[in-house]
């Protein structure tokens, strides 16, 4: 197993460390980040490590100094680091010299090859052996006695708190459980730790550590349920605990995002519990929940996504089966419920096509409107920041890319922002979209787009309206010119963010350090590859950067930069080399303390190294340590409708800001220009930046909610970018204009079932949805005729928005008709609904023997009998394609002799059942009805297998008594009581060509069998003491049956028909006596419609 950690955490200050090389225990309760202790025998973490790019948002990058205080490395081992700064115009403050517009090449004096000390203003200090090493203030603490523990969970309160909690565990992978654990607590940022096992109970084995996301002083521990099922609660950051017994095993927990004491718990036995006092008391609210997605929707509600796919909400204080409600009436796709900020998203798939719905601020759901022919096959919600939705949509013609769409405030109407954004799959198969939102400055995004089988990085400053490539640096680390000209060559960044707090990831930015981005990548001309990887952290509001090598080897140094990455100083942070498992930076905004987790050897105790950076900040910052700088977009000072001037530390100012610092930003609105507006829904941007209606969109058609006498906002084709703060200028020109609703006749009326199916079950609700493309919803009358003599009418669409329910009391095909009318016109829609009752059993009724070249009637008897429309699929002999009928009977002619199989499948709705029978086909045959002594009826279970075995027993008895060849005898036992059978006398299979002689032989065989039966010679023992005698039924022996026409054949067929009818009547009577029929038509069920 590689030494890189796996991620599974919910709190940025909570980290979980694994130093075992075995697979992790599957546990839905695990909070934190999973790390592995690094093995010196492991290969390097990556065989292809890219350079680091320290970038301001203008992304004009300069090569920065390598992370080394040693002499320059050979050219092939050079590490490329980019220093990227904002472009600024002359005269806009005391910022560094202007670099020109984005995309313009910046001239720079070439440096001598290998003279790396000239790259930064300060540069790493090259020191001799006698030079004093720079050291950071640090302390190390060993968790004594925990050397065997292979997992740890770490919580750092941060945010003005010095408390750190660590739970170390020994997980037995053979037993699949935690066998021992230790709880440690520090109150001095990790200088010292106290073991708290005696405070939680020496016999208690804490297994999981939870921190209240709203109040981090509240801590929860869950013990191992195999030893003791209990919960330990602390309200003072883990100083003291109270223990409470649990009568259920918790599988997953969910804390309310606002109410700090509200918790939901899902148990292993599929029950849902709630607690209103942070786990002290629990109340069972639901049970038998086979599939559950727990989500708090607002301070009062939670939502769940059942396996039978309905979105339900319930008040946590009084939740029960009777108080549940469904904000969305229709069924939804399983696990499609997504809740982000003010939005709730669901997916509904019907007829193979997915539709998406959104609820903004818990209002009624509205269908998401993508461009008409986007035809999505997959959709992911990327961001819901600033009251707007970014969504990645994979359209019908895409495989490994997604199109990026951006919505209006309500999340309903989406317009295209960028095509063919690269996607990949994570370790667990999840989809990862290469899109990154830069923190600290709104509206700036980076995306990797696939262009002609190449991946290129694009940047936008206005939330996706305009995108452009990134300019690569002018020179490499050795000072040689880099020939990378836009648009043929550009800088490519890796946009996989780190969800792991112990690693900086390939790209990161902070709200507290606006404009500074740390990223890895390469340009199209040069691949910046080296054999080392570094994690970078922001310190003290971005005033310093810390770099630590990510390696499987032990280390004792890290690097610090005070000039935004232009130069780096090497510091020692521990006296002995440490195998680093992870690092965690103080989550407070001043971020001057780091905890490094590791081991001095693979079998040593956990070592917690506290690194305090306060000593390297020489003083507090004063006004002379600051400069102003301006956010520019290709030289344009207005970004997202604002002109912003930031105050930041001067590069190289080695001073501290501290906790009480508040970043100063001077902002003023800009005059609205073209780039502040994007195309509205239904409009496409053309080459001249004009928004033109798409071919499928009718801009003159008002909303269906627009009723006569009301007004609506008629789009100009443009809409101001959400969260853009521009004013005046083009704002009035591009703002939607108020117009009177004209009133329109109904058009595009549709009637569909709520699940999109055309089949409904008798006696169950069938829910119909009426849709209208154009018209006046409030002034249009609606009538729905269910086709069974029942119809309903409504004055407008309001009562039918959630669907119209109806129960059919009989099966059949019903024509459902919807009719819409107002004073301007009318429209009609028709749906044919198949109402069925589930089929339970089918019996194939076929003759046992048939004559070649004569039609045979075959019937499928289905139970229950009143099923409505059924479809029958028939296979005869070796045919591979079925005959399909709507009738339960079919005639078929066999053209060759032998044993043939007949198979029928009966389809009713989603149900499909089958039966098969064998039929012997001959040129001619004779038959005789048989009966048995009455004792056989007592032992007759009336099942096919028993009848087949009895037929074989009778056949053997006949052969034994008469010595007739067994291939000329066939005995078929009939269903029902009294037990009866038919004896078939068949010609020898090799004698059909000598017909006349063989017919005489067949008469002799029949006479021989008849005499044996009349003399009671044919007997068999059913079981000890039960002897059964076979008789000839007192009917005349059937004459020869063959393929020739004649009176005797017809008479025999008529005689057999009479006999079979009588047997069938008795069979049905007997079958009803022995079995309970299920009928679909119930006298107590009446047709009804429910709103």
From TrEMBL:
What family name appears in the similarity comment?
Belongs to the VPS10-related sortilin family. SORCS subfamily.
Q: What is this protein called?
A: Sortilin related VPS10 domain containing receptor 3
Specify the PKD domain's residue ranges: 785-829
Give membrane topology per the record. Single-pass type I membrane protein
Species of origin: Monodelphis domestica (Gray short-tailed opossum)
Q: Does the keyword Transport apply?
A: no
- Which subcellular locations apply to this protein? Membrane
UniProt entry tagged with the keyword DNA damage: no
Matches recorded under PANTHER family: SORTILIN RELATED (PTHR12106), VPS10 DOMAIN-CONTAINING RECEPTOR SORCS3 (PTHR12106:SF10)
Q: Map out region (Disordered) in residue numbers.
A: 103-122
Q: Which domain of life is it from?
A: Eukaryota
A GO cellular component term found in this entry reads:
membrane
Q: Which of UniProt's keywords are assigned here?
A: Glycoprotein, Membrane, Repeat, Signal, Transmembrane, Transmembrane helix
Q: Which residues cross the membrane?
A: 1051-1069
